[in-house]
Specification:
The chain is mostly helical. Helix content is 71%, strand content 0%. It has 20 helices and no strands. The chain is elongated, with a radius of gyration of 21 Å. The model has no long low-confidence stretch (mean pLDDT 96).
Length: 314
């Protein structure tokens, strides 16, 4: 479930545009006004605001935002203001160009989105970058990672609930055999992970657990330093339990001496309209601390206010 809160009576698009223009003008920027508007509008109104703002003032809203604010606050506002598919396209482009083993961005976009959503991301990628997502992933990713990630971002999985139990049993055996022989990049592992529906994969992983006495992810921890194994585990978790996967991403982003603002921005802006409420519940259960409190303790100022708004703060 989403955490985004929208006013019971949403102002007219023209009024939102006028208020945003006022927030940008004068001696100082009214950051609180920006948050009160953009931090409390869902995707359709944000899209309409961007169009009306450009039509009215002859300037792209994202340009006005970039000219007036900066840093982590700017990054959060810009990502949030983008359409979901366009946002994912931007994140995927950055993830491909800056790719390094263990980078989770492409896995998250390929595995935690529905088939229609991922198709829309690929279309948005075409429109924005004049290339295909698959093309850029293939150009920047190497080795077994390329073998896995290109078909992952190309996937269009069946989304129905039907499950073939006999197939789940046979493919659990295939996965176990390949993993037992440390053939982690084998074509059969990649075929199963990149083509089967999420319901079918869940049945396969449950069969794996029942047949061999432990989860498949445990067998994929044979070498904790192996980044490809880490990527395979991320694929499985994103496909089958995204709330627990993203809870861990947030926990690691907040834990330690420094804050991983990139991960905070990515998870909160991409999940606030999807399932951030479930992620919050998973975080509370795992850490005995509300996610809002943890983020408030690790961030400050307008950046903190923007993240908390997307987490549901009125």
């Amino acid at each position: 479930m989403a955490t985004l809160t929208v006013p019971a009576s949403v102002p007219a698009i023209a009024d939102d545009c006028e208020q945003l223009r006022k927030a940008f003008q004068g001696w100082g920027t009214n950051e609180a006004l920006i948050i009160s508007i953009l931090g409390h509008r869902d995707a359709a109104p944000r899209r309409a605001i961007r169009k009306a703002y450009a039509d009215t003032y002859g300037e792209e809203l994202l340009r006005s935002i970039t000219d007036e604010i900066s840093g982590d606050f700017e990054r959060a506002v810009i990502l949030w203001t983008l359409d979901p598919a366009e946002r994912d396209a931007v994140l995927a482009n950055e993830g491909a160009k800056k790719w390094q083993p263990g980078s989770p961005v492409l896995v998250e976009i390929a595995c935690a989105r529905g088939s229609g959503q991922l198709f829309a991301v690929r279309q948005a990628y075409h429109d924005r970058f004049k290339r295909s997502l698959e093309e850029d992933v293939a150009a920047h990713v190497t080795g077994d990672f390329r073998k896995l990630l290109v078909p992952l971002v190309s996937a269009y999985r069946y989304e129905g609930p039907e499950v073939n139990t006999r197939l789940a049993h046979s493919e659990a055996k295939i996965l176990h055999e390949k993993i037992e022989h440390k053939a982690y990049g084998d074509d059969e592992i990649i075929r199963i992970l990149t083509t089967r529906s999420k319901a079918q994969l869940l049945a396969t992983f449950n069969n794996y657990n029942d047949s061999f006495g432990h989860p498949i992810t445990k067998d994929l921890k044979a070498d904790p330093k192996d980044e490809f194994l880490k990527t395979l585990r991320a694929v499985i978790r994103c496909l089958t339990c995204p709330d627990r996967y993203f809870e861990k991403v947030l926990r690691l982003a907040i834990a330690g001496n420094g804050t991983d603002e990139s991960s905070l921005n990515r998870v909160i802006t991409t999940r606030a309209e999807v399932d951030l409420k479930h992620i919050k519940e998973a975080y509370q259960k795992r850490n005995s601390v509300p996610l809002e409190k943890a983020i408030a303790g690790d961030t400050s100022g307008d950046y903190e206010s923007m993240l908390l708004a997307l987490l549901g703060k009125e």
